[in-house]
């Protein structure tokens, strides 16, 4: 299967490589469209603000500048190799921030939005050292907190796409605590929400070695009336070029027809 678009890619407006190089890689890969979905957090709480300053994730302030850059890239695209570039976002979700998220998204008017859960217990889910110090019962509770947030994200209907629904499995210390009950809760929420999940290739070629959702999770979701968008979750041109073929193969193996994250 040839995928027409990659709806999850990052640029130097968050933690990726320069915007022109990411768009060029998508064009070189033969894609008809690329969605630039830089990380963003709009919480006014102190801990997210501190993390944002540390990482330099300032898309809430720079999306207008990026929008101008995207417009320029569209104008420069050669007629022989045109590509549609979507102005999108991957926004951190926490139920405590819903009102701020809603206001920001209404003002920003992106082409589409990905919502992702990256934090439990006020700690990034990829912080291995923090979770290594936790007991088994604490880890179970933290994984439950993660899926509570994922379900709340879906039920909020603030986003077009829920990003990497089982990203918590990437962290070895948290891996294996996701249960069938977690799968079913998320799958049920997706079935009754306009928010759609993605098949995310962000760690399939790395240590984790799986797509999101992982096979057992995907099976629970596929048993319901739910569709998927494709995303490489690339931060570098080489990642996009390497991940796209395996993502296409995944959609073909599953006999899935990819959907767009917005109404056409």
TrEMBL record:
One of its GO terms (molecular function) is histidinol-phosphatase activity. Keywords: Amino-acid biosynthesis, Histidine biosynthesis, Hydrolase. Its EC number is 3.1.3.15. InterPro entries: Histidinol_P_phosphatase_HisJ (IPR010140), PHP_dom (IPR004013), Pol/His_phosphatase_N (IPR003141), Pol/histidinol_Pase-like (IPR016195). It catalyses: L-histidinol phosphate + H2O = L-histidinol + phosphate. Pathway: Amino-acid biosynthesis; L-histidine biosynthesis; L-histidine from 5-phospho-alpha-D-ribose 1-diphosphate: step 8/9. It comes from the Archaea. One of its GO terms (cellular component) is cytoplasm. Belongs to the PHP hydrolase family. HisK subfamily. This is histidinol-phosphatase. The lineage of its organism: Archaea, Methanobacteriati, Methanobacteriota, Stenosarchaea group, Halobacteria.
């Amino acid at each position: 299967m040839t995928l027409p678009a990659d709806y999850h890619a990052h640029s130097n407006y968050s933690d990726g490589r320069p915007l022109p190089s990411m768009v060029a890689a998508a064009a070189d890969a033969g894609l008809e469209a690329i969605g630039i979905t830089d990380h963003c957090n709009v919480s006014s709480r102190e801990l997210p603000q501190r993390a944002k300053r540390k990482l330099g994730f300032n898309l809430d302030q720079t999306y207008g500048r990026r929008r101008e850059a995207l417009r320029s890239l569209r104008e420069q695209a050669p007629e022989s190799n045109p590509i549609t570039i979507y102005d999108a976002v991957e926004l951190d979700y926490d139920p405590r921030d819903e009102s701020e998220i809603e206001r920001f998204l209404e003002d920003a008017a992106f082409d589409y939005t990905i919502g992702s859960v990256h934090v439990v217990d006020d700690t990034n889910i990829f912080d291995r050292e923090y979770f290594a110090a936790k007991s088994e019962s604490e880890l179970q509770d933290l994984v439950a907190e993660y899926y509570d947030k994922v379900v709340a994200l879906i039920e909020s209907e603030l986003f077009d796409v829920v990003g990497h629904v089982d990203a918590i499995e990437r962290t070895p210390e948290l891996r294996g605590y996701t249960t069938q009950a977690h799968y079913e809760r998320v799958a049920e929420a997706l079935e009754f929400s306009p928010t759609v999940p993605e098949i995310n290739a962000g760690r399939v070629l790395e240590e984790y070695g799986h797509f999101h959702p992982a096979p057992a999770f995907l099976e629970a979701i596929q048993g319901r009336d739910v569709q998927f968008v494709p995303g490489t979750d690339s931060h570098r041109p080489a990642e996009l070029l390497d991940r796209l073929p395996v993502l296409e193969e995944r959609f073909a193996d599953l006999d899935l027809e990819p959907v767009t994250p917005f109404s056409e």
